[in-house]
Write a structure and sequence with these properties.
Blueprint (H helix, E strand, L loop, with lengths): L1 E5 L3 H12 L3 E5 L3 H8 L10 H10 L3 E4 L2 H6 L3 E4 L5 E2 L2 E2 L2 H14 L6 E5 L7 H14 L7 E5 L9 H6 L4 E5 L2 H11 L7 E4 L1 H30 L6 H9 L33 H14 L5 H12 L2 H10 L7 E5 L15 H10 L3 E5 L4 H8 L4 E3 L3 H5 L4 E4 L9 H8 L4 E4 L12 E3 L15
Parallel strand pairs: 1-2, 1-4, 2-3, 4-7, 7-8, 9-10, 11-12, 11-14, 12-13, 14-15, 15-16
Antiparallel strand pairs: 5-6, 8-9
Length: 458
C-alpha cells in the first residue's frame, strides 16, 4: 500500500517514517521546500528520539521520501493522511491550513480513478471531518464521498520526546469513517500493528476521543497542582508524600500476583509541578471549552483546569520572593526551557512566563537546556539572559536556581553544587530533586517543614 502524509511536522513526519518502517511506501508532503530538502538529506526538522535513525534507514531503502508535489503523491497513493497544524487562537481552532491541504487533495482526486481514502489525523473539533473536510473534497474533486472516495478520522496519541515509540507500539488505534470501505482501508493500514486494541467508530466520536483523552491528562495535572498549593500552605506537609499515599490506592497502582506494584504511566500525570505546556494539552483543553460553549455548555471543570495551569508558574516566582525582599540584580539560573524533557519544543512552556517575570523584575538570568537553547533565543533575545553550554556553567556564581524541566541531567545538580562549594537557593519546580541534599531548598507543594518523624511506607 502506498501512503501520502500531508504535513511534515511532529505528527506527520513521525507517522510517515514509522509507516515506512512497517513496510509501506510513504510520501510525506510539506509546502516548505527547505524542510523537504532537509528531510531528504536525513536531517529531521524536529527533535525526536529514534526519528533520525528511522529516517536514514527508510530513505535509503526507498520506503520514504519527502516532497512538495501533493497532487502527484495523492494520485499515486491509496490513502492520504492529513496531519497539518491546527492552532488555537483565542480558544478557537484555526482550520486554514487544513482547508488549504484538503482543497489541494480534492483537486488531486480528480485524476484518481480507484477508491482513495482521505484520513484526517490533525486534532480538530467534532464535526470537522464530516462538515468541513468532506464537502471541500467533494467540491474540488467533483466526486462523491462514499462512492468515489472515503473520508476517515484517525487521531494520534503521541507524546513528544517518545513519539516514535508511541507510534510503533500504540496502546490503542481509533478509526472513524463514513463507510465500510473507508474503515477497511484503514484496517489494512493498521494490520501491521499486532495485538493492539482497535476502536471503530464514526468521525465525530473519533475527533472527540482525542480531546477527551488530552483533557483528562490535563485535569489530572491541574488536580495535583491544586493539592500541591494546599500543601504549600500547610506546615510540615509535602505534596510528594501526599501523592505517594494517593498512588498506593490499588485502583491507581494495582497489586500484582507476586505482591509487587504495577506502577502505571498515568501516575506521572499525578505529580505536582509548575504546570503543563506543549502543543497539545493547553490548546486541546481550550478548544474543547470553546466547542462546548458554542453548544451551550460552560465546562466549569475544564475552565478551572486552564486557570490552575496558567497560574502555576507564578508559584516559582513567589518562592523566589519568599527568600528575597528585592529581586533586582539578583543572579538566577533557570534550568530547563523546553516544556518537557527529550524535546526542544518551547510551545506553552512554563519557562516562558517565569523568565518573562524575572526579566521584568531586573533579574540577571543564566539559562540552560540540553536542546531548546536556540528556540529560547528566538523568544527572549539575549538582553539580561545568558544561554550556557552546560549545567555547571549555568549554576556558577548565582543566588538562586529555578528548575523548570524534568531533564535527567538535573538529578546531578547536588554534585555540581557541592563541587562548586556554593549554596544558592534551590527552587524545584518539578519536585524531582532530593530535598535533603541541599542546604537551601524549596519547591512546589512543600509546606514549611519542622523536625519530625520520617514518613515511610511499611
Amino acid at each position: 500500500m502506498k501512503v501520502c502524509v500531508i504535513g511534515a511536522g511532529y505528527v506527520g513526519l513521525v507517522a510517515g517514517v514509522c509507516l515506512a518502517e512497517k513496510g509501506f511506501h510513504v510520501t510525506c508532503i510539506d509546502t516548505d521546500a527547505e524542510k523537504v530538502k532537509k528531510i531528504n538529506n536525513c536531517i529531521p526538522p524536529v527533535l525526536e528520539n529514534g526519528l533520525e535513525d528511522l529516517l536514514k534507514k527508510n530513505i535509503s531503502n526507498n520506503h520514504f521520501v519527502a516532497s512538495s508535489n501533493l497532487k502527484r503523491a495523492v494520485a499515486e497513493s491509496d490513502i492520504s493522511m492529513v496531519a497539518v497544524c491546527t492552532p488555537v487562537v483565542n480558544g478557537k481552532v484555526e482550520l486554514d491550513f487544513l482547508r488549504d491541504a484538503v482543497k489541494e487533495c480534492g483537486s488531486a482526486l480528480k485524476e484518481r480513478k480507484a477508491y482513495h481514502v482521505v484520513v484526517v489525523k490533525s486534532t480538530v473539533p467534532p464535526g470537522t471531518t464530516d462538515e468541513v473536510v468532506l464537502p471541500i473534497l467533494e467540491k474540488y474533486s467533483g466526486k462523491k464521498a462514499g462512492v468515489d472516495f472515503g473520508v476517515g478520522m484517525n487521531p494520534e496519541f503521541l507524546r513528544e520526546g517518545c513519539a516514535v515509540s508511541d507510534f510503533m507500539h500504540p496502546d490503542r488505534i481509533v478509526i472513524g469513517g463514513i463507510d465500510r470501505k473507508t474503515i477497511d482501508k484503514m484496517l489494512d493500514l493498521y494490520k501491521a500493528f499486532e495485538g493492539v486494541d482497535i476502536l471503530i467508530t464514526n468521525n465525530k466520536t473519533a475527533e472527540l476521543i482525542k480531546y477527551a483523552s488530552n483533557s483528562l491528562l490535563a485535569t489530572l495535572i491541574s488536580f495535583s497542582n491544586e493539592i500541591a498549593n494546599i500543601c504549600a500552605l500547610t506546615q510540615n506537609v509535602d505534596i510528594k508524600e501526599v501523592m505517594a499515599g494517593v498512588h498506593l490506592d490499588k485502583r491507581l497502582n494495582p497489586i500484582l500476583a507476586d505482591g509487587s506494584r504495577a506502577k502505571p504511566g498515568i501516575l506521572s500525570y499525578l505529580e505536582a509541578g509548575c504546570g503543563f505546556g506543549g502543543s497539545c494539552l493547553p490548546k486541546d483543553v481550550a478548544a474543547l471549552v470553546c466547542y462546548a460553549r458554542r453548544k451551550g455548555e460552560y465546562c466549569k471543570l475544564l475552565r478551572s483546569v486552564i486557570q490552575v495551569n496558567r497560574k502555576q508558574p507564578e508559584k516559582l516566582i513567589q518562592l523566589l520572593h519568599k527568600y528575597n525582599g528585592s529581586t533586582k540584580n539578583l543572579k538566577v539560573a533557570v534550568l530547563g526551557l523546553a516544556f518537557k524533557p527529550d524535546t526542544d519544543d518551547m510551545r506553552e512552556s512554563p519557562a516562558i512566563p517565569v523568565i518573562e517575570s524575572l526579566l521584568q523584575e531586573g533579574v540577571h538570568i543564566k539559562a540552560y537546556d540540553p536542546a531548546a537553547k536556540e528556540n529560547a533565543r528566538k523568544i527572549f533575545g539575549t538582553t539580561n539572559i545568558k544561554y550556557t553550554e552546560s549545567l555547571r556553567e549555568a549554576v556558577v556564581n548565582v543566588d538562586a536556581i529555578i528548575l523548570i524541566t524534568r531533564w535527567k541531567e538535573f538529578r546531578n545538580l547536588h554534585t555540581v553544587i557541592n563541587e562548586l562549594g556554593s549554596q544558592p537557593l534551590i527552587i524545584d519546580g518539578r519536585r524531582m530533586l532530593n530535598k535533603g541534599a541541599y542546604i537551601r531548598y524549596d519547591g512546589v507543594g512543600l509546606g514549611n517543614q519542622k523536625e519530625g518523624l520520617d514518613k515511610q511506607v511499611f
